[in-house]
Specification:
Elements (H helix, E strand, L loop, with lengths): L8 H12 L14 H10 L5 E5 L14 H11 L3 E5 L2 H4 L3 H10 L4 E4 L15 E5 L6 H10 L3 E6 L2 H10 L3 E5 L11 H7 L7 E5 L5 H9 L4 E4 L1 H4 L6 H9 L5 H7 L1
Parallel strand pairs: 1-2, 1-8, 2-3, 3-4, 4-5, 5-6, 6-7, 7-8
Helix pairs in contact: 3-5, 3-11
């Protein structure tokens, strides 16, 4: 784990809450839906491979979305999302394991559990197809990765730098997310993905995270090597009624690239 003294106060607060969260009892066993396969299938179908995020709120957004998470999830899939991400962190993001359970029962695409998971026991809160493991916050990434796989989870291992990418690859990560958001300042820079992805081997599934708001952003990340894009705020903007069109707009970015380039 990196020195967390440089983290933004909001992130420090999230980590403190994660450390204090009671561990659930028992252990889960999952038969996961294939996340890389779903991204590949979307690309083969001519869609930008999106992991659309059900996010009630966050420290970097204003207000709270009160739409039913299941309705949001179905709207995202109807719009063309290849997979979903569901926040289960309760104190700062308004999520819960129960929300993820309901969403996963309602859709047939892979569902990622997005949370700040610090110990193997925390993996057992709910069944999901994939879990997020953040390199910066884990003292024993290989152990956490092994614990996730023992339960059947696919693991999206999140990095923000080339050094963290090397750590993830050395631990055996096969799905890597590059977060464009700097957790020290909470600023976003799409250059981050381009820098880090240049060092990634071809056989690793790469997902660009944070800061993707427009079809132009989506095309930029895809051109830099992203196999999938994790998008939350830009899809949730406008609430339930706007979600399907928000997804379609980003999911069709590759289809409209030539037309847009001609117009410019």
């Amino acid at each position: 784990m990196d020195n967390n003294e440089s983290l933004a106060p909001a992130v420090e607060s999230i980590l403190a809450a994660a450390r204090d969260r009671p561990a659930p009892g028992g252990a889960v066993s999952v038969s996961p839906r294939d996340l890389p396969g779903a991204l590949d299938a979307a690309a083969a179908d001519g869609r930008t491979p999106l992991v659309a995020e059900v996010k009630p709120t966050s420290p970097t957004t204003r207000g709270e979305n009160e739409d039913d998470p299941v309705a949001l999830a179905r709207a995202m899939v109807d719009g063309g999302a290849a997979a979903l991400s569901v926040l289960t962190e309760p104190e700062h993001f308004g999520g819960s394991p129960e929300t993820l359970r309901r969403v996963r029962e309602a859709v047939d695409v892979p569902v990622l559990r997005k949370d700040f998971l610090l110990s193997p026991e925390q993996l057992d809160a709910v069944e999901a197809d994939a879990v997020l493991l953040i390199v910066r916050f884990l003292d024993d990434l290989p152990g956490m990765l092994a614990a996730a796989r023992e339960r059947g989870f696919q693991a999206l291992v999140e990095v923000h730098s080339r050094a963290e990418l090397r750590e993830a690859l050395d631990a055996g990560a096969r799905i890597v997310g590059v977060n464009n958001r700097d957790l020290a300042r909470l600023s976003v820079d799409l250059d981050t993905f381009e820098r880090v992805a240049a060092d990634a081997p071809d056989d690793v599934t790469l997902i660009a995270e944070s800061g993707i708001s427009t079809p132009e952003d989506a095309r930029r990340m895809r051109a830099a090597g992203a196999d999938g894009l994790l998008v939350g705020t830009a899809i949730m903007r406008g609430g339930l009624a706007a979600v399907p069109e928000n997804v379609r707009r980003l999911a069709s970015a590759e289809d409209t690239a030539d037309e847009d380039d001609y117009d410019t």
